[in-house]
Amino acid sequence: MADNVSEWMITSYYEGGENFQNRFNPDIQFGTPQSQSKFQRRKVLRGGSWKDSPSLVTTSNRSYEDMDATHSYIGFRVVINLPE
Q1: Is residue 80 part of a domain?
Q2: Is the dihedral of CA 12, 17, 18, 22 positive or negative?
Q3: Dihedral sign for Cα atoms in the order 23, 20, 73, 34
Q4: What separation in angstroms does the CA of 53 have from each of 15, 44, 77?
Q5: How far is CA 75 from the centre of its chain?
Q6: What DSSP string runs through 21-63?
């Protein structure tokens, strides 16, 4: 996760999310891009970016941003399963 951008997660951000997430499937999703509530539009960001101090460039760094936000320090990682 030590990369040039923080990474978008599909998980919705909830301040107490760690307290009720299932450890086998920690994905919590609610809200849509059309949601009027700013609370429902927040998505999790993980890791750090080029603008963060070295202590924040870890997988435990968890923050949020509006799902429609665009910044030079937010990106995503493409993951695919390769056939064997």
Answers
A1: no
A2: negative
A3: positive
A4: 23, 19, 21
A5: 10
A6: -BTTB-------TT-S-TGGGEEEEESB-TTS-GGG-STT-EE
With tokens 């941003």, the residue in question is 65
DSSP 70: -
Which backbone phi and psi does 75 adopt, to 5 degrees?
A: -150, -160
- pTM across the whole model: 0.64
Residue whose pair of structure tokens reads 């101090």 in the numeric block = 53
Task: Identify whether 61 is part of a domain.
Answer: yes
Question: Could you give the number of structural domains in the chain?
Answer: 1
**Residue 35 and residue 33: Cα distance in Å, rounded?**
6
Each residue's pLDDT tens digit, 1-23: 456 788 888 777 877 666 655 55
77 with 45: CB under 8 angstroms?
no
Residue 81 maps to a domain: no
